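Dear all,

This email documents one entry for the complex benchmark we are building for the journal club exercise. For each entry we list the sequence lines for every component of the assembly. Then comes the predicted three-dimensional structure of the complex as a C-alpha cell string, followed by one or two observations. Please use this as the template for your own entries, and keep the labels exactly as they appear.
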Amino acid sequence: MPNGQRLQRGPMMTGGTPLRSLDEDQLLARILPAYGVTDELLVAPGDDAAVLRTTERTIATTDTVVLGRDWLDAWSSGADVGHKVIAQNLADVAAMGGHPTGILVTLVADPELSLEWVLDLVAGLADACAAAKVAVLGGDLSSAPAGVVMVSVTALGRLDGEPVLRSGARDGDVLAVYGSLGLADAGLRLLQTGHEGRHPQAVARQRRPEPSLAAGPAAAEAGATSMLDLSDGLLRDGGRIARSSGVVIDLDPAQLAPFVEVLTDVLGAEAALDCVLAGGEEHSLLATFPADVLPDGWRALGRVRAPAEGEEPGILVAGEVVMHTGWDHFSGS
Amino acid sequence: MPNGQRLQRGPMMTGGTPLRSLDEDQLLARILPAYGVTDELLVAPGDDAAVLRTTERTIATTDTVVLGRDWLDAWSSGADVGHKVIAQNLADVAAMGGHPTGILVTLVADPELSLEWVLDLVAGLADACAAAKVAVLGGDLSSAPAGVVMVSVTALGRLDGEPVLRSGARDGDVLAVYGSLGLADAGLRLLQTGHEGRHPQAVARQRRPEPSLAAGPAAAEAGATSMLDLSDGLLRDGGRIARSSGVVIDLDPAQLAPFVEVLTDVLGAEAALDCVLAGGEEHSLLATFPADVLPDGWRALGRVRAPAEGEEPGILVAGEVVMHTGWDHFSGS
C-alpha cells in the first residue's frame, strides 16, 4: 500500500466451507482444473514440479500480497486479489523487456478461511493468466496462524533481446510513462473515504491494475535505455532509475499537469499531486529513451541529465527536491 | 510437519535489532551481498527481475515454510531454516530428473522480528545455494501480522533429458530409495521429547535434510520410470506413485527392516516403523526402475505389479493395506 497508509488488519473471509474441511489433495482437485494450458507448458502442475519450454534467457521475479497490508476484503474480492497479484508480477517481467510465460502461486492461510473465497481467488488468478497467455506452473498450500492470508507469486518470462535495466538512463534521455499515473492511489483514497462512486476507473485501477504488458518488450525493441514498473510511486521509482544510472531526472510540471488535472476534481489539487508523484501500485511502465525515440503511447514526463559537480543522482521536479517518498514495506515511512 | 503433530505456535525471535528499524533498501543492502553468483545468472537481483541462462526445458517448483508449523525457533536456527527450505525445493527439481539452477525467496515477517535472525536465515540460504551451485534470482520482503514469519522459495532447474513423472511406474518395476528413511521424523520425535542427544544424525536430518541432488538426474539417465522426493512419508508418497501410475506397490518388510532397525534402539520398534512408513520431511528420492536396472546407491523397498481385477491402485506392505497416512497440511490428519 502506498503513502505510508498502512491498512488496518481486516477480518478474514469466513463462512461457507472452511479450508480445513478439505485435505490437500481434495483442495488441489478443486483448484487445478481452473488453470488453462499454454504451448509452453510441457509438464503441468501435479507432479513434484512443472516443466516449461524456455529459450536462452529466462526472466524471474516474485511478489507477495498479505491480507490487511495489501488488500482488505471489504474492498477487494478474492478474484480482484488474484488479478492484482498476477498483474504486478507480470508487470515486472514486462519492465525487463520480456514476455511473461509462467507463474507459480502459493497460498498461506488460516484453515478457517472460506473455501469459496479461495475458489474466487483462483478464478481471478486463472483469468489474469489466461488473458496474458501465461501458464500456471505450480504452487504450494500451507496453513497459517489465525487471521493470516497471503498469496505469493513467482513469474517467469522469455527474454528475446537484451534486458532493459534500471541503470541505463543517460544524459539527454527523456523519461516517459506508458499508462496512467496516480490512479490506483486515488482509488485507494476513495475507498478509504467511502467515495468510490466518484471515480470508478480509479477504484478499478486499485482493485485490478491492468499494465500494458506488450509495451515492455516493444519499448525494449524501440531502444529504451532503462525501465521499471511503477510499484512505489513516480518519485521513489524514478529515483531508483536515477541513482542506478548515476543521473539526475528532472520532472517537468507541465508534463505532469494533465495527470494531476484528471484527479483534481475528485480529490482536490494537493491530493491529486500526491497521487501522481507518490502513488503506488500503479504498475504502469516508466522508462527512459533517447530524446529522438519516443514510441507511440509513451508520454514524456521529464528529462535526464548528468549530475552537476558535487550533485547527487536523484529525481527533481522543476529543478527542486520534493518530499514525497512513497511506500516502504517495513518502516512504513 | 509429519504425522499430524501440528507444532504449537512458538515465540518469534525478537531482541537485537527489529526489522522495522531498517527500510527496504537498507535491508536489501544487508541481504543481497550474501548471495554468490553462478555462470547461469545473467542479471542479478536488484532490478525488476533477474535473468537466468536457460535451455529448452526449465523445471519450476515452489515450497513454503511457516514458523510454528514447519519449524520452531527453539529447535532450529535461522540458518537451519534457510538450509531446509532450499533443500526441500531443490529435491523437487532433482526428483524430476533435473539440475537446480536458481531460486527466488520471499520473507513475510512481523516487523518486530530480529534482524539478526533474518541475517542468519540469509546465511543458511546462501550456504545451501552455494553448495548446490544455485543462483539466487530474487525475492520479496513483506510485513505480516504479529508473530508471523514465513519463508517461501521457488526453485528453477535445467532438464536435459525427459522428465521423470510420478505416473510411469510399470508392472514388474522395483521401488527403491536413495538415502535414508524415517530419520527426519525420528529427529523431530527426539526434539519433541528433549532427547536429541540420543541420535544426533536424526536431529541433523530434521534440521537440515541433505538430499542427494545428483542422484535425480543420474536415476533419470539410468532409466527410472517414476520418481518423487519423500516429503510426506513413504506410504503417502509411494501411494501417489501407485495411484498416478495405476499400479500396486507392495513393500517388502525384509527390505524395510534395516531402516527400522537403526531407529529401534532409539525410539522402540513401533515408533521406528512409524517413522519409516510415514515419516515426512525426509527428502530422500523414491523411484521405480525396471527390475534389471537398479543404479548404485539405490536400495530396493518393494515391487510394482498391475492391480488384480477389481483392485484399486495403491500401496501395500506384504500384501496388506496399512494405516499410516502421513501428514496433511490443512486437515492435520
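Observations: The first strand of chain A starts at residue 41 and ends at 43. Chain A touches chain B through 75 residues (CB under 8 Å).
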